[in-house]
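Incident log, support desk, overnight shift.

02:14 A customer reports that sequence design results differ from what the structure should imply. Their input is reproduced verbatim below. On-call engineer (initials T.W.) acknowledged and began investigating.
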């Protein structure tokens, strides 16, 4: 007999007639009395997990457990523009912060520290905000325009909220939708990175350099997700090459 079983038997065999000073211990004694009255079950304990609808099952589900410990809400309309297959996690994370307006842009820094410089590091606009940085700033708009104008054509916009809406709906075709989502996320990450580099005194890069770097990043991503054993051409990569002129 194991030590645990011995301790359980000892607990149930000893009855305390005196009251405890702590009410919690008195409640424990009450529950023990209930078990003594109906007899100690000699069978083995069974571990059960709480699942959907409060039902208990012997099968563990990480999804059900996660839903038990969080507050469930309806999915946001923009989630498909942030979290999608073949995205790059660090890009998605920066976009997620931008969607919630939680990046430490100049307007936020001024709220935390009155002495902080809120100007845009790229164009010297008086206030650097999320919507200014992505992509109405004269510097960042060049990068965004060079990468997307030939894809979006008449739908081209530099408004962050309009871009996010476009990335989240189904108005774009399959390959165009993925390319635009990836370009949007890679551009947001690259611009935020360049912004931080300049804030810390590093050598600035011109818009053309950022554009070339992003072009290479997109090409590499489109190449990496194409099945090398496939006999069909990589249509997404072909489309991207065509858009680059």
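02:41 Re-run completed on a clean worker. Output:
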């Amino acid at each position: 007999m194991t030590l645990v079983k011995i301790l359980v038997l000892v607990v149930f065999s000893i009855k305390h007639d005196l009251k405890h000073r702590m009410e919690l211990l008195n409640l424990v004694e009450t529950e023990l009395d209930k078990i003594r009255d109906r007899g100690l079950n000699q069978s083995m304990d069974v571990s059960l997990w709480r699942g959907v609808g409060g039902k208990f099952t012997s099968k563990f589900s990480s999804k059900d457990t996660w839903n038990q410990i969080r507050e469930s809400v309806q999915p946001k309309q923009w989630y498909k523009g942030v979290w999608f297959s073949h995205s790059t996690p660090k890009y998605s994370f920066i976009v997620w912060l931008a969607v919630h307006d939680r990046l430490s842009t100049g307007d936020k820094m001024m709220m935390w520290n009155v002495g902080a410089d809120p100007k845009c590091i790229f164009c010297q606009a008086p206030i650097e905000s999320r919507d200014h940085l992505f992509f109405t700033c004269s510097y960042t708009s060049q990068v965004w325009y060079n990468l997307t104008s030939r894809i979006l054509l008449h739908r081209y916009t530099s408004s962050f909220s309009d871009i996010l809406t476009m990335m989240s709906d189904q108005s774009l075709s399959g390959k165009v939708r993925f390319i635009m989502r990836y370009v949007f996320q890679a551009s947001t990450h690259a611009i935020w990175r360049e912004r931080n580099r300049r804030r810390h005194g590093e050598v600035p890069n011109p818009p053309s350099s950022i554009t070339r770097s992003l072009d290479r990043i997109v090409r590499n991503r489109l190449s990496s997700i194409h099945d090398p054993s496939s006999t069909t051409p990589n249509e997404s990569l072909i489309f991207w090459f065509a858009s680059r002129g």
